[in-house]
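Revision sheet: structure tokens.
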Amino acid sequence: MASRERYMQTRKDFTNHNFYMRYLLILLAFLFGLCSRGQTIKQGDNLGLEYKKMGNPYFFNAPGFTGWAEGTGIFLIGEKSKPMDCDLLFIALKDTTLIGVFKIDNPSVFMFDTEGNSILNSTSKLFLLPSWVVKKKTKVNPSDKTILLLLDKLYEKTLQANELELDEKTMKDYHRYQTDTALANRHIALMFDNYQNIITETAAKEEKPPADICISLLTSLGSECMSLYNQIPAIVCIYMGEALQSAGMTDEARNHFSTSLEFYPNSIPLLVYNYKLEQNPTKKNEQLKELKKKYSKHWMVKGL
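Predicted:
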């Protein structure tokens, strides 16, 4: 298997998302595709105020949108007795907290309150559990570096290693954050997991990842790591650079990789991306020679 294909396969291994998620979304769009267009809602609207506009709400069981414990028991709320007749469906946690809506449109999309302030400030084709939902119930502890060490381990075993392999224990430790509510700083794991789900789902459909969501998500993840640990894990730095590149923000990506190397000078992925974006032909040639001399067995270097 080619290096890039193996890389994407490893990313898929990260996720413990419901295997049928993409089919559930298609099913939702199909079932509700013939609905009316009376009630409208847009990004920036107040979720709570929009909910109050409904007359008599009806409640429906939701598909298994997420494997995270906080997402258990999520239900949908519509203004009509049959979901297929609704204009949109409000999404609520089992404690009735509203977190977003499933908007029936062309195409159908989710809209989320990502800040916990009742404002719909994010639109996505995928279900992404807002990080505040987990953060408000998790123990936030700067002294507990378990998740930081786990992200470093994922980096070492996938991106930095010559061969891309994850052992069963590491995968078990990673997925444990979804269900073990006693673990500290689970919101960091959720943000990382949301990004992985985006990459996995879009790759499966051969689509480009949504730049605005990816950059915003990784920025929040980096800020949270800085706030807790005064550092941003190498794997997050790499993903941010990839997101900037995918968004066509080449200059920003170049500066990002260069700056990240100041903190992780021996990171092979950062060195490779820095080489690829180098504009000076002489420096670029020197960097390539150095990469092939020091890291000839690395999967990314082999592709140069």
